[in-house]
Amino acid sequence: MNDEFLKAKGILEKYNQEHILNFYDKLSEEKQNKLINQILNIDFEQIGSLYENTKHEVEFGNSKIEPINYLEKDKISNEDFKKFNTIGTDIIKNDKFAVVTMAGGQGTRLGHKGPKGTYDLGLDSHKSIFEILCDTLKKAKEDYGTYVQWYIMTSEENNRQTVEFFEENNYFGYDKNKVMFFKQGQLPMCDTKGKLMIDENGLIKEAADGHGGVFESMRKDAVIDDMKQKGIEWAFIGGVDNVLANMVDSVLIGMSIANNVPAAGKSVVKAGPKERVGVFCKRNGKPSVIEYTEITNEMAEAKNENGELIYGESHILCNLFSVKAIDEISKNKLPYHSAFKKAKYINEKGELVVPEKPNAYKFEAFLFDAFESLNDMAIMRVKREEEFAPVKNAEGVDSPETARELYKNFHKN
User: Fold this and answer.
1) What burial class does residue 162 get, using C-beta atoms within 10 Å of its C-beta: 0-12 exposed, 13-18 middle, 19+ buried?
2) What does residue 196 show for φ and ψ, rounded to 5 degrees?
3) How far apart are CA 102 and CA 115, in angstroms?
4) 234-286 pLDDT, tens per residue?
5) pTM of whole model > 0.90?
6) What is d(CA 330, CA 214) in angstroms, rounded to the nearest whole number?
């Protein structure tokens, strides 16, 4: 037996995870090497403490939660609008701006096999989500006379398919030298007893580490270095699933620079107290977002004297960061949150189990936890019907049907 195997075996014994090697002998040599490599690269201390955290309720402790200031895009004075637009336009035209799209997810919830970005939204044109986002960048090329650098975050699971999809579609007519792919990180999943799970391939079951992993991935895959080399100073970071995302927004860029803040976020008014979205706030004086799972009913329903929700600025994952801020954030690990999910796994008898109810913990970092490392950020309230049409669920709210409707109405007007 080689040294690597013995080292891995020792680690598993120390952390009470020996079951991981139960089917080692049945694996091909390639998979054996992959499994050993996984074991040697996992931070078992970290996974142990993340599992322990699942036993405790999220508490704000002594956190002081307050509403956050925002500017409504429609109500910015003409003078300020012109000023912001001029500053932002200058940044875009001089190639100091980039777009980062987080596209590590699969379209499973939509009943789609393959990366979410390759999903056909059901328009007459049969455009995929990726092509719809690319249209926004092509429009920016017309408006500003330059191809905006586009970084696309994929995952272990979908990187190959994503790159092939872009190649097959000739990058939708975009300059392929202005597109760079990089991969999201992963963390092991564990069961309710804290045991790591084995996937269908006999390897440790891993899941993407959440959109907060984007900063660390940008560091690891040299995206930050690439930005610095290209003289890029600002980057929009958004999710793949918002087909109305206004990614190249000169006013947002100009507003951030004029207010001397390292980041900005777009918000839309929460549809109602119960909408499942995180909301912008200040936590202990720092910008923050409270997830819908963490907010109390009392806070969710609180209104101001105008009858508006006090915590009503929905975080729609449309954020702008200075490259300096991205660089700083990427040096530290963001906290991880746990989600209780259904996950297929191989049991001790070697059988594939497909659970009917949640059975596994997935750990993910949230991008907005990075806000608390900033002294301040600007929030710009935009109109839902103009900038927010997410494709998350197969039907009902935030589904292809609702996104299609919003998309068509926007382009009709």
Assistant:
1) buried
2) -65, 150
3) 11
4) 999 999 999 999 999 999 999 999 999 999 999 999 989 988 889 999 999 99
5) yes
6) 8
